Amino acid sequence: MTTTPLTSLTGNYSLDPAHTQIGFVARHAMVTKVRGAFNEFEGTAHLDGTDPSKSSATVTIKAASIDTRNEQRDGHLRTNDFLDAPNFPDITFVSTGVEPLDDNRFRVTGDLTIKDVTRPIGIEFEYQGAATDPFGNLRVGFEGSVPISRKEYGITWNAALEGGGVLVGDKVVLEFDVSAIRQA
């Protein structure tokens, strides 16, 4: 596969929600992982292929769109014990910088806001390539992930396990599989 050089990709992009996944993984009962995703979000990015440090991105996620394929768990995750979606409907990320790590990897730093708590994070992304789809749209792909501490965002609910430990781990890994379309 030939990867389109970044220098030809400068422009403004919008996330394609039908081909982008914003997911997460959290430890459950100390022995397994629960995976989930957010089904409603929007985002834009400016890519500067010549000087990636001039690139930027913003993403807004609807907290109530959380989906772990278990409605009872999802309902609990929407409450004040976790995301408090009725009072804090949006989770946001606004980039503050982009640093090239090599030809295809970048660290995107920015402010992540969950439940009205804003903290800086750095997400490593890998450029997956670009292609023109059958409708004439230029698409770019990036994959990345970052671990965060849910306690740092005021999400502290837990339950002790009989044999020791807790029901929900503190570390949550946010995962991004992004397809973005260049705007005209």
UniProtKB/TrEMBL annotation:
- Cross-referenced InterPro entries, in alphabetical order? Lipid/polyisoprenoid-bd_YceI, TTHA0802/YceI-like_sf
Q: Domain of life here?
A: Bacteria
Q: Family assignment?
A: Belongs to the UPF0312 family.
In Swiss-Prot or TrEMBL terms, this protein is called Uncharacterized protein
The organism is Streptomyces lavendulae subsp. lavendulae
